[in-house]
Amino acid sequence: VQLQESGPGLVKPSQTLSLTCTVSGGSITTNYYYWGWIRQPPGKGLEWIGRIGYSGSSSYSPSLKSRTTISRDNAKNTVFLQMNSLKPEDTAVYYCNGGSIWGQGTQVVVSS
């Protein structure tokens, strides 16, 4: 299984971030599998954002829940992250993962 994140590298404050994680070599609807998003701000540790499960249910970090949505397109085998009202502190490398498998990450900078 391989994961590939993609999205805009630069977003302005207050705008919405939309990232895509394309999964190959496996189905995102595989039983008991979860697909998550994690980020790492510069100079800081990893922060869990949320995940979506094989049944389609999602869960989120309490601190990000109010402005985050994780969804999926089963036909395209793709998982999405949408985060609203971006702030400069949302600048980070964003990763998607499934089990122990991680994508290479995509850099997002929030700046005007």
What's the SSE pattern?
A: EEEEEEEEEEE
Helix content: under 10%
Treating each run of at least 4 consecutive H or I residues as one helix, how many helices?
A: 0
- Derived from helix and strand composition plus strand pairing, the structural class reads mainly beta
Topology, number of strands:
11
Radius of gyration (Å) = 13 Å
Strand content: over 45%
Oligomer: single chain
| Gross morphology | globular
Which whole number gives the mean pLDDT?
A: 94
Largest sheet: 7 strands, mixed
User: N- to C-terminal separation?
Assistant: 36 Å
Low-pLDDT windows of residues: none
For this entry, give a set of tags.
four-stranded antiparallel sheet; globular; 112 residues; seven-stranded mixed sheet; 52% strand
Question: How would you portray this structure in words?
Answer:
With 112 residues, the chain is mainly β. Helices cover 0% and strands 52% of the residues. The protein has strands spanning 2-6, 10-11, 17-24, 34-40, 47-53, 58-60, 68-73, 78-83, 92-98, 101-102, 106-110. Strands 2, 4, 5, 6, 9, 10 and 11 form a seven-stranded mixed β-sheet that branches. Strands 1-3-8-7 form a four-stranded antiparallel β-sheet, with no helix packed on it. Strand 7 (68-73) and strand 8 form a beta hairpin. It starts with a strand and ends with a strand. 25% of the residues are buried. The model has no long low-confidence stretch (mean pLDDT 94).
